[in-house]
Specification:
six-stranded mixed β-sheet, alpha/beta, 20 helices, binds zinc ion, single chain
């Protein structure tokens, strides 16, 4: 507040000194005076007709002006803070179009197995964590890669060898497969007699005994027993997560699914740490009765302005490729075509009900059949209700049929993809690609083809599935290599994006995907002063250096939410 007050005091003083009421001239100067100006920068605005400018002025929460140094210095007066960017790169504040704030926040403190791609490295991490936490009643963690188990899925015997005297439960990096030890299975009473729950599978050996791997809804059998965190523990994690997001240059995020309890915690955390705007999708109701819709409508009314805004519902059409649960037209090598969670008729009915009530619908759909089901439901809802402009979204949208890409533009449907999903680590190259087979792998995460088809493509991270560090996402979308630079030239290099395209997907297009492109997503007069200052010129440097970029300053509505020590 202090700067604002200083400006007002300065203006009042000026008025007093000039003798009485403010003259029209002083009023004029007041109206165009900036609280802060940024000069001598390389400011990437995201506006097509003026993509790069030198300087920018902020007044209150919004952008007052963009232009040359000379243009902008005109808005500087006594009390205006001048920031000399010394050639640094500025972009609109980053927007993550798909993440899970609580899961991501908790991942900052729990056992993470993400970078262990061999069985030995993975079990080493579990052993170390168990030794370091002797009082934990359960050994829990997440992030293991399918690639660490070249013979198939993990087994309880493998985990018993590391943790035998406590229950252990480890969730795969994509959140779709769980790995239990024998004690955890015993506590959950999962035996050869236990039936597979709807939408899930208890993986069994040749004799019918559970192996310890549980897919999709079967994960709840064990996962449901893990002691729940207390609300204040979750809220503390959320506060840390929000601060971390700001440090990654994020000014807005889209929360992909949430229940009413978690929404309250998020509202409290944002009140305590007001460093992020959050667009929220509630969990979809499978059978949206008038009562269910009324409950959700109440939440939409309550959170309709400010930093926390409810506007969408999110559901799952299918699963994931690695667990062979993403719904496909053609079978996976060996077995099955995946598990759609709905019939087309059920999906059509639910989507039409939400569409009619003015909701945006976000549907997780990864396999080509799942994506077709989601597109079909969206198209039918618009036709049945006579609605336009709902901007329904297919989340992840990994393996679409090429012929389905034009349906996005035609029906105004958003492709909500994740910039790091094609990250070609061992899991991707060793499990994901072979599970699809060569023909389907070529159309997976086809970011360039999606752009070429004219779809609005919004980028996200799916944190905690991948880090929400945006420069890592941009680096992946532009190079399609690992940070080590493999494979040379990138995986499916024809789908690499330009840096500017990747930036657009993380700013303007993600803003469009939350119906907020008029307020944010580019740096233009009157839009929110949400911006990020980076250590390197993303557009000018060679793509292999993007990953080394540091966030120096994050500004949200004119207020700093993150500042690097060396800025
Ligand atoms: Zn997600």
């Amino acid at each position: 507040m202090s700067r604002r007050v200083t400006v007002l005091v300065a203006a009042a003083l000026a008025a007093a000194l000039s003798g009485g009421a403010a003259s029209p001239k002083v009023k004029e100067a007041k109206a165009s005076q900036a609280d802060r100006i940024f000069v001598n920068g390389r400011i990437w605005t995201g506006e097509p007709d003026r993509p790069l400018v030198e300087a920018l002025a902020v007044r209150g929460t919004t952008v007052l002006a963009v232009g040359t140094n000379a243009d902008i210095r005109r808005h500087s007066a006594k009390g205006t803070e001048v920031v000399d960017l010394r050639g640094r790169f500025v972009a609109p504040g980053f927007i993550d179009g798909h993440l899970h704030l609580l899961g991501g926040s908790l991942s900052l403190e729990e056992l993470r197995l993400d970078d262990a791609f061999t069985f030995g490295a993975l079990t080493g991490l579990v052993r170390d964590w168990a030794a370091a936490h002797p009082d934990a009643h359960w050994v829990t963690g997440r992030g293991w890669a399918y690639a660490a188990f070249p013979a198939g899925l993990p087994s309880r015997a493998q985990l018993d060898a590391v943790v035998a005297n406590r229950p252990a439960w480890l969730v795969s990096y994509d959140g779709h497969t769980g790995w239990a030890n024998s004690m955890a299975l015993r506590l959950a009473r999962v035996t050869r007699e236990t039936k597979d729950p709807a939408g899930g599978e208890i993986v069994r050996d040749g004799k019918g005994e559970p192996t310890g791997a549980l897919k999709e809804s079967a994960m709840d059998l064990v996962g449901g027993l893990v002691p729940k965190l207390l609300p204040h523990e979750k809220e503390r994690a959320l506060r840390n997560g929000i601060a971390q997001a700001a440090a990654w240059g994020l000014t807005s995020v889209h929360q992909a699914g949430i229940d009413a309890e978690e929404l309250e915690l998020l509202a409290n955390a944002l009140a305590a740490v007001p460093r992020l705007r959050v667009y929220v999708a509630l969990d979809i109701e499978r059978d949206p009765t008038p009562e269910a819709l009324a409950r959700q409508e109440e939440l939409r009314r309550r959170f309709s302005t400010g930093r926390l805004r409810v506007g969408a519902v999110k559901g799952y059409v299918d699963g994931v490729v690695e667990a062979k649960t993403a719904a496909m037209f053609e079978p996976y090598p060996g077995d099955g075509t995946g598990l759609p969670n709905w019939t087309q008729e059920e999906l059509d009915r639910a989507v039409a009900a939400y569409d009619k009530a003015g909701w945006q619908v976000m549907l997780h759909a990864i396999g080509d059949r799942g994506i077709d089901m989601a597109l079909t439901a969206f198209e039918r809802a618009a036709r049945a209700n006579g609605t336009t402009g709902r901007r329904h979204r297919v989340e992840h949208m990994e393996v679409a049929r090429t012929a389905d890409l034009p349906r996005f533009k035609a029906a105004g449907i958003i492709a909500s993809t994740q910039a790091m999903f094609p990250y070609p680590n061992q899991n991707h190259i060793g499990v994901y690609v072979p599970t699809l087979g060569p023909e389907r792998a070529r159309r997976a995460m086809a970011f360039r083809a999606i752009d070429d088809a004219g779809a609005v493509q919004s980028f996200g991270s799916d944190w905690p599935v991948f880090t929400a560090e945006v420069v890592r996402g941009i680096a992946c979308a532009v190079t399609r290599t690992t940070v080590e630079g493999t494979p040379a030239g990138g995986w499916e290099p024809s789908q690499r994006l330009t840096t500017e395209a990747a930036l657009r997907h993380f700013t303007r297009d993600a803003a469009f995907a939350e119906h907020a492109e008029k307020e944010k997503g580019t740096l233009a007069v009157g839009k929110l002063a949400d911006l990020v200052i980076l250590s390197q010129d993303l557009v000018a440097i060679p793509p292999d250096r993007i990953k080394d970029t540091k966030v120096l300053l994050t500004v949200l509505g004119g207020q700093d939410t993150w500042k690097a020590k060396d800025f």
